[in-house]
Prior knowledge:
Strand content: 25-35%
Number of domains: 1
Helix content: 10-25%
Order of helices and strands: HEEEEH
Mean pLDDT: 85
Number of helices: 2
Distance between the termini: 16 Å
Structural class: alpha+beta
Amino acid sequence: MGITITPKQDRNRHLTYAETIVDTNATGQQLCKPRYGCNWSINEPLGEGRILTHYIGEELAIKAQWNANYTDQ
């Protein structure tokens, strides 16, 4: 996962949900960066617009949880 530099004209715009998804595993669980703020999350879409959030926290802790328990081996 690399660093993404956002163009200046786009910095005040909120990301769409699709733009927040960083990685998805085989079971459909998603590693998501925040639309704004600093809390990353691990989410599982349940259908009909509903999402089950497994973990919320700062970037390094959530990425470590993702790599340890959710990433496809």
